[in-house]
Amino acid sequence: MFDVPDAAVHEALELPAVCEVQLAAFAHRLDAFVDEAAYLAAQEGSIPYAPQSFIPTGLFVEDGQVPPAAAVFTGHVLATNVRLNPTTQKIFYWARVSTLGGEVDVVADPEVVVGRLVVGGIVSGSFWLSGRLVLP
């Protein structure tokens, strides 16, 4: 489940459909670990999540409620960078993350990040999901 800001572009698409998605995850909270050992050490004393997991938390709602486009996931950082929002002139973190569900572009306000994003590291957190359909 994810929000599709440009959904009107796909009005003619018959559903259900199978297609590629460019998925972005906007962090509500993001914990970053330099490697898998640091991530696993932080899990001690609690029910651990695997280093790659994806739980679509938005699907756990009462009947009749609109499910939010939300997920909790953990994954390996494939690439990362600090970027500048040209409209607000504020920096944000970007990372390409490999989760159990596939690769996701993660963006985060520095204020919600605990730890340091590094290539080869692990990230874990809760996210709002937004995506674009990539059609041939």
What share of residues are in beta strands? Answer: over 45%
* Helical coverage, percent range: under 10%
Number of H- or I-type helical stretches: 1
* N-to-C span: 22 Å
Count of domain modules: 1
Protein described:
There is one protein chain. The chain contains one helix and seven strands, in the order E-H-E-E-E-E-E-E. It has one domain. The radius of gyration is 16 Å and the shape is globular. It has one helix spanning 36-42, and strands spanning 20-33, 53-55, 70-84, 91-99, 102-108, 113-114, 122-134. With 136 residues, it is mainly beta. The protein has a five-stranded mixed β-barrel with strand order 1-5-4-3-7.
List keywords for this structure.
46% strand, globular, 136 residues, single chain, mainly beta, 5-stranded mixed beta barrel, 7 strands
Please outline what is shown here.
The protein has one helix at 36-42, and strands at residues 20-33, 53-55, 70-84, 91-99, 102-108, 113-114, 122-134. 5% of the residues lie in helices and 46% in strands.
Please give the structural blueprint.
Blueprint: E1 20-33, H1 36-42, E2 53-55, E3 70-84, E4 91-99, E5 102-108, E6 113-114, E7 122-134
Parallel strand pairs: 1-5, 1-6
Antiparallel strand pairs: 1-7, 2-3, 3-4, 3-7, 4-5
